[in-house]
Amino acid sequence: MKRQIKHQFLIAMFMTTSIIASGQTRTNNPFGLVYQDAITANVPGEVNIHPVRYKLNGIDIAANIYTPAGYDSSKKYPAVVVAHPNGGVKEQVAGLYAQRLAESGYIAIAADASYQGASGGAPRNVDKPANRIEDIRGMADFITQYAGADAGRLGLLGICGGGGYSLKAAQTDKRFKAVATLSMFNSGLVRRNGFMNSGLSTIQQRLQQATEARALEAAGEEIRYAADAKITDEMADKMPFDLYREGHYYYNRTHAHPNSTFRYTMSSLLDLMEFDAATNMDLINQPLLMMAGSKADTYYMTDNAFNLATGTSEKELFLIPEATHIQTYYVPEYVAQAMGKLNEFFGKFL
Asked: Rounded CA gap, 4 and 336, in Å?
């Protein structure tokens, strides 16, 4: 029982983000961006941001496209799809890396996942792997038709949970000519087994809860949610893992956004718990770059998937010295190292 309570407490601590006070959300950026050195205005000749909306399987998707300095729609540029973390939105770390890629000469797109952020879909906060993978394909659909984007030079960057889903998307979608992940998080593995296998004893109990939640939805009754607790700084400070502790401060404090929430429908677990980002890794035959902080407690997920990627002759594991998982999202020196490697990788293969 103690182990079960501990597991549920840990999952709630990491998977919940609540805007505790409006003053903690940066609202002064006209595009809603909350990362450091974000674009505040579109200036001719410089990197610009273009908010767009498009339909994906009947759902309205909200995205931001970043174009490089001196962008000329009559020319051709390599393009990169950027997939955001679980619970994250396009205005956070995905936007930061999309902007940095545009500064390096790429057209980049970051979109809110369907049912999440500013994108449509009901009920809210459905979090199913198939949806997230389709979101990535949908970004590819849109950006390859965008003026100036070279469909033959399309890259993919997935961050945290978006990294796991990017691996799955790239296994079958060969429009992606080069695939990169940053701090990859295997969502299904963790939802099923718990972080570092801390939830093995509660798998059947949680599956029963998800089954009951699905039945209620089918009957038109209440929508039940997982990870819907509020976490205080005091609770966060006692968290045993950097991922949970630093994740709280990133999502709830320094980079909070009103559309970002880790709450997800309990019924989503029926799909999440049978998913594993590291299966069929041999299907990836594109160049592969997987990046992680050397001190990231999530590194075991990157290491496992990387070793299973036997179908590509071009793969590299890049460790960012001293960085933890969350620190790769925003610490300037770690972002610079990740971008340096991305520029080298995409520059070679796109």
From this structure: 40
